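Exam prep: given the inputs below (a chain plus zinc ion), describe the expected output before reading on.
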Amino acid sequence: MAKKLLGGASKEDPTWLAEVTYRFAFDAVYRPLPPDANAARSRLESGNRAFAALLDRMTTSPPAKLNIAVDPHDVGLLPGRSAAPKQQPFAAVVGCADARVPVELIFSEGPNDLFVVRVAGNGLGDDVTASLSYAVDHLKDSLRTIVVLGHSGCGAVSAAVDVYLELLSQQNTCRS
Ligand SMILES: [Zn+2]
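Solution:
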C-alpha cells in the first residue's frame, strides 16, 4: 500500500488526495454491536480494508473519500444533558504508542467503538493487563474480542531486541 503511494504521483500532485470525514449527526446510521467475536473481527477487517482502499485510491480526482458516521451520543453531545454516555466498545485493542498507527482511523471506527490501550512495543506490563482486565470485567455487555495489534517497522520492538541481543553477546563474551 505505502509502496504504491511512494511509487505513484508526486507529493505536489494536487490530485493526490484522500479525505476521511467523521460525520457527527443525530441521523447517523446506527451500527449494531457485532453479535460475537467472529463478527467483531469481520467488522475490524472490513474497516481496515476500507481504509487501505482509500489510500490506494489517493491518486484519483476528485479526492477519495471515507465517511465514518458517528452518533453524537457516543461522545456525550446530548443537548440538555450532562451525563456521560454508556461506554460500549465491541473490541479491546492493545496497540503500539507509535504515532503512525492511529487505531480508530485504521479500522474506520469512531468514538465508543474500541477500547484502546497503547504502549510502546505492545508490552503487556501491569498497567496494560489491568486495563484489559477492567474491560473484560466491566464492559462485558458490549466487548466481543481482544486484539493485539502489531505493526511493521516498530522502533520499540527493534530496540528491545537490540538490548536482548547485546546482553546475549556480553554473556557469551564473558563465558569465552
Ligand atoms: Zn511500535
